[in-house]
Amino acid sequence: MNIYSFMELILPYFYLIAGIGLIGVALGLFRFGQRKNIVYARLHILGVMDVVCILVIIFLGNPVAILAALAHFFLMPFAVHSISWADLTEADDYV
Amino acid sequence: MSKAMRPFWGIVYFIGLVYYIIVSARDVFIQCINGKIDPQVMEIDTILNRPVSMTILANSITLTPGTLTIDIFPEKQKLLVAVISPRSQKDVIPFEGWIKKMVED
Asked: Does the record's keyword annotation contain Membrane (chain B) (predicted)?
């Protein structure tokens, strides 16, 4: 068995696990109501979606898509910082 | 420690970062399923001095699901970090030592 047939064997299970993970965290996005710091919790949950989608794109094997996934990997923290900082400065209890 | 070892620690840091990202993604998935979340904001002390290394640490924290950096205070060597459930400082920044060896030593 060479590496390509091994990957073909493994990839469907990986996609299945990734899909279950995405559905699970998507439920997590909506099941928690309004509570303190819920914006940060939703950003954490979206971080899981980011990671799963980046892994799926990398395993798809398209070089251009891999570049896009890596760009997303390195730029995603800046967007999350911006959203969380905006929420912190807008919060009523921030001094 | 010589600067020649920096690429080695960079590789160690990247492998460790990918490991902690996958483990944290699994943990957050489990917390989403069982509903045991308690999002909090905490201040983290860091041993890093240079702004660039603190930025790398902040990005690493944010890339790891379950923790995200809100703000950096380079003069106080502190980070303002939001966590999805209470945890110790060591659990929030396990890769701090690798970043120090990669950038500052």
From this structure: yes
